[in-house]
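Quick one: co-fold with adenosine-5'-diphosphate.
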Amino acid sequence: MALIVQKFGGTSVANPDKIRAVAQRVFKLHQTGHRMVVVLSAMAGETNRFVDLAQQMQNLPDRREMDMLLATGEQVTISLLAMAIKDLGGDAVSLLGGQVKIHTDGMHTRARILAIDDGLINSQLDQGKVVVVAGFQGITEQGDITTLGRGGSDTTAVALAAALKADKCEIFTDVEGVYTTDPNICTTARKIDRISYDEMLELASLGAKVLDIRSVSIAKGHKVPVHVRSTFTDTEGTWVVEEEEAMESNPVSGVTYNRNEARITMSKVPDTPGTASRIFTPIAKEGIVVDMIIQNTRDGNLTDLTFTVPKPDYKKAMGIIEKVAAEIGAEGVSGSENICKVSIVGMGMRNHPGIATTMFDVLSREGINIQMISTSEIKISCVIDEKYTELAVRSLHDAFNLQQQ
Ligand code: ADP
Ligand code: ASP
Ligand code: MG
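Sure, here it is.
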């Protein structure tokens, strides 16, 4: 008898029929004697609909109230699934994050899990129930509802698996596993059978939204075996596990893209000590996470500074930067929300020269202009115009022979 945590994403619970199908799947496994915790997302599209509603009320919606709204989507699906399991003759109980006591900090809309109380879940499991938990949400010490950031149900599932010392965490989604690139935009993408936590961390951090990055880092920290697989088939998916020697043989293991960033450029910035700090301190104070930063020196003690921020923070960051630019005497501020960061990732890149050149050649052959570049030991990212995303991903996937390995 194992303890299994299963998480079903938004497309897996998108309507009553799909919820019934999930109930059947869960019920069947539960009947074989396993202890089961099931984490759910909101129905596909619901969280986006709430964001849209909030924006109709307030230009930059209050984050506490936003969480109050966003957390409702998961309440709908967990109650419906518990009903559907009972309808099949099983026993189930649905629980909100606050009822389980998933304690988080107070950073509304991007809260971090601090601790999980396993008492209530264990007592319900002891009574033979399937415990159905709302993903993506928690509660502060003061009793305020928080959410964990978009895609956060994966994090709830893996964190619960770690807290309960589950035997495995299964992430059910609308694709059959983790692929060499997004199978929805590249038909030759190949499913990866096993991937290391570290490589998965890189893929997730660079845009492979099949797993939320925080779920991967919790899995790594607590050695939770994660199995990413399809809700709609019984096919074996991808196991996310500790690093194995064989994984390093291919220099590039995946291509990712992230359309969720925006670019801001401040031009003709006076080149004096302390300027970067004056620019980025007010941005950090607002909790905005800056990703890539590039500085170019010009003649006459001036520099141009370009950086990227998450798209939802673009308006706020622009407001701050326009103010700072005026204060420090920078000549201009411009920006674009129509960008995409395309990356190639691979642990094996550490030992293979020439990978970056191949990437730049491929993009130039396709007539795609590179706006920004950033590299680390195991990844190379280029910012390009958003409209070339698919073309860039497919050409890079082809050029590095990812379909043939
Ligand atoms: P869920 O609602 O189940 O959490 P998500 O939409 O968050 O599902 O994640 C699954 C999606 O991730 C897939 O439909 C696919 O388009 C996308 N994706 C991006 N990169 C990859 C990749 N490398 N492998 C698999 N899926 C990927
Ligand atoms: N419903 C939330 C979202 O759409 C959380 C999740 O699905 O993981 O981001
Ligand atoms: Mg997701």
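If it helps, The first strand starts at residue 3 and ends at 8.
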